[in-house]
Structures are given as structure tokens and as C-alpha cells.
Request: fold
Amino acid sequence: MTWHVPEEDLRSYARGELTAPALWSTDTHLTACSPCRAVLAEVSDPVALDAGWERLDAELDAPRPGWFEALLVRLGVPDHTARLLTATPVMRGSWLGSVLALLVLTVLVTNLSPVTDSPTLFLALAPLLPLAGVAVSYGPALDPTYEMAVVSPLHGFRLLMIRTVAVLSAGLALNGLATLALPAYGLRALAWLLPALALTATGLALTPRLGPVLAPSLVGGGWIALLLVAEATADGPLAPFTAAGQSTAAAVAVLAAGLLFFLRDRFDLFHGSPA
Reply:
């Protein structure tokens, strides 16, 4: 090779000041010419070179957002909020897949059983899924991102509400799809909706006092006990799925939501506590 890049051009190249077409020629030449690369190393600013490597390392080590996180950012959600939201355990494919499989199995059993006044098995299960989803989305015991959430700039109650809306949206959507697979029952198959809201709101309202594990566990256990009592005493549809039961569920949901709002400041203490 008889031609080499002039030293002045190499200095301009190192400073990022060399323009086309000389820039293109220099790029091509440096790939095949070790003497010019040696000169380039001598004329380059070592401080700027180290800073460039550090920026490259940081860029290579930076986490790549998933499609859902990228979508949230595009919709205007702040980066840290989108990261905390998509890190919610119930927003992962494994959880959603498990819930979907459980609903599919329940729908199949219901459709294969003789048609009754209401799809009791489905109506009993569906309200528990949003409650369980919220339970595993908040608190040190079950949330793998709890430490990150504690030091985040989000208000504790706001973080809880963001995740609750996400969980309810996913859970209610899956429940809604399952409801469409029960056409023989018509609107009676939607009797799970108000109990689901009532159970979720009650579990959240009790969380500051009982914790994110015990509160939903007691609420879920109370729901199962209520169904067992109703099953033992009912001749027709179970009491929670009658008009009176639906009205009661709506009232409980409203009261629990009001209590949750009243206790919202306690979530800051709970949010910052390691226990």
C-alpha cells in the first residue's frame, strides 16, 4: 500500500471533524492499514477515547425494553413508570398463559355439564383471578421488583393504582373472552363482574392493615366460604349471583373503594417499609 491518510486528516477524524468524501476514504483505508491505525491511536485524545468506550459499554449494557414497555412509552407513559408496570409479575406471559389455561378448562367443564340457571363453576372462579393478580403485583413478599419500586419517584398509592388498573384490564379482558364462550347463559354469565370488583377493592382496602398476602387471602377465603354456605342453602342460583347478591356486591365495591381512597396515605408507609 503506497498511500496513507495524512496525519492532519487523522487528527480531524479522531475529533469527529472529518467530512465526506474524505471520511469515507479514511474509514475504508483504516480497516486495511495497521500503520495508519497506529498513527490514529497516537493522535487521538485518550480522555475522549476512554469516554467513547464508556458510552459504548453503557449502550451495550442498557436493558432493551420489550414491545409492551416500548408501546407504553410511545403512548406517553414515563420511562420509569412503564418499566415498573411491565415488570409486574401478572403482566408476564407465564401468568397470563396460566390464567387463560385455567379459564379455558373452566369453560370446557361448564359447557360439557348440563345447562343450569347459571354457570356456577365459572362464576365462582372468575372473581378470584383479578384478586389474585393484584395480590402478586404489590409488596415485598411476592413482587420481585419491590426494591426498585421502593426507591422509585412514584407515590405508593399511585403505583398501586397503576398496577391495579393494568391487572384488572388484563384479568377482566380474559374473563370477558371466557364469558363469550358461554353463549347458552347469555347475560347471566356476566354475574362475575361485580363480585370481582368487590373482592379486589376489599382486598386492596385491607392491605395497609393486613399486608398484601393476608388481606387477599382472607377475602378469597371469605368468598369461597360464602359460596359454600350459599350452595348448602340455595334451591336455585347461588345468592351472590341473584339480583340481591349483585346489588350487595356493587355496594361492597363502592364502600371498599371509598375506604381505599380514605386510607391512601397509609400505602406510602407500607410502600417504604421492608416488612
